[in-house]
Amino acid sequence: MSAVEAFPAPAKINRMLRVVGQREDGYHLLQTVFQYLDLADTLEFHSLSAGHFHRSPELAGVPEEQDLCLRAARLLADETGCREGVAITLHKTLPMGGGLGGGSSDAATTLMVLNQLWGCGLKRPDLMQLGLRLGADVPVFLFGRSAWAEGIGERLQALPELSEPRFFLIHPGVSVQTAAIFRHPRLTRRHPPITISAFLAKAPTNTLEELVRQLYPAVDDCLRWMATAGLVEPMLTGSGACCFGRLGDGVEPENLLAGLPEGWRAWVVQGRNRHPLHDLVKD
Fold first, then answer.
1. Active-site pick, 41, 67, 106, 137
2. Partner of 21 for a Cys bridge, out of 29, 44, 272, 274, CB 3.0 to 4.6 A?
3. Which candidate in 12, 41, 106, 220 is catalytic?
4. Interhelix angle 124-134/102-117, nearest 10 degrees
């Protein structure tokens, strides 16, 4: 294997999220809707001798032994008996701790690309099982389509009818620790479950949002700013910190970007129901 082109690892948003229970092992039971965005990290893969794995550049706070890309590469090699090594160059666009699934998406892209480049021949369900061992959000990026998810996020059902609007996405300059949110004593853990038809018919909600707004004033400020700026149904994605809202009629994204508070980052993005590497893996 030699150097190849850069492969995308797209962001996701949660168009809806409900915590509906908790398992005895501590994992929370969810209902959520995942959709990809056309905003992405990119990864390049270069051949190394068998058993050697490396990622560059360094990421603050993420040692190589904890890096999801390298864990994905090692897991694929170990499970398939593949005698390859790889150097991964990660071009990071997605903010860490933003609720966009960046690390999980990077891991999924690593599994999909190396599965092809190494000739492992694993099909989508096999890769999804490997991905689940890396993290609950990894399988949705391997699934390849927008999805209704239940369980801990691993039970997926395609949602081809989901709209693909333009969103205004904001990172308000803070990083939210997902584990801390789910451990918090004030988190409501047993919201009533809903159906897909109810989600499609009603305004979406994220049941983590109230607690995150209380604990992170910057997120509360962001959602208030978005509401006054005319964005439609602004809400938190995942556990945050990123927030998104649809661009309504007459709302000019250039004006929003010009008026963005200091320390915030923002993007105009498009919802996508199909992962850009969907065809790399056979069902």
1. 137
2. 29
3. 12
4. 140
1-283: CATH architecture: 2-Layer Sandwich (3.30)
- pLDDT in the model for residue 161: 84
How many CA atoms lie less than 13 Å away from 79 in the CB half-sphere? 18
pLDDT digits 0-9 by tens, 111-124: 999 999 999 999 99
User: Strands 28-48 and 85-91: what pairing?
Assistant: antiparallel
State how far the alpha carbon of 26 is from the alpha carbons of 46, 152, 177, 179, in Å.
Answer: 39, 11, 17, 11
pLDDT at 115: 97
92 is catalytic: no
Strand positions, DSSP E, 81-220: 85-91, 147-151, 155-158, 166-171
- 137 an active-site residue? yes
Closest CA to 113 of 127, 97, 99: 127
H/E stretch holding 225 reads: helix 217-228
